Amino acid sequence: MVRSFSFVVALTLLIAACTSSDHGSRTTDDGSRRVIFIGLDAADWQLLDDYIAAGAMPNLAQLVREGASGVLETIRPPLSPLIWTSMMTGVSPLDHGILDFVQFDPKTGAKEPITSSMRRAPAIWNMASSAGRRVAS
Q1: Interior CA angle at 128 toward 126 and 132, to 5°?
Q2: Model's pTM, two decimal places?
Q3: Are residues 22 and 82 in the same domain?
Q4: CA atoms lying within 13 Å on the CB side of residue 17
Q5: How far apart are CA 60 and CA 45, in angstroms?
């Protein structure tokens, strides 16, 4: 089966982690399930399917086999900072304010990297922390 190009395999793997059977799952002391978020930026399912079929990516094969996978749509332009920040905040680039990798300093005109402190919306790990959940990055 040919799958379309997807910039966000990470969401598929998150869904796989959340929907997989209890086989091998780990729980916390309070009985809740742990979720590991794995992201593969600019991943191409046609290429990944070939690697899985060749046995070169057995761990990814297991995640797909025991979880869920599917074709994902992306936003345009398909630029990583926009996509990842939209995915992690649940809001559009215009709402979260991350529109590129760099910005120009208004005083010096020099290029500077855009950082998470410039994001205008909380990311999922911020929301989880606010709700008393333990997160790691």
Answers
A1: 110
A2: 0.67
A3: no
A4: 18
A5: 11
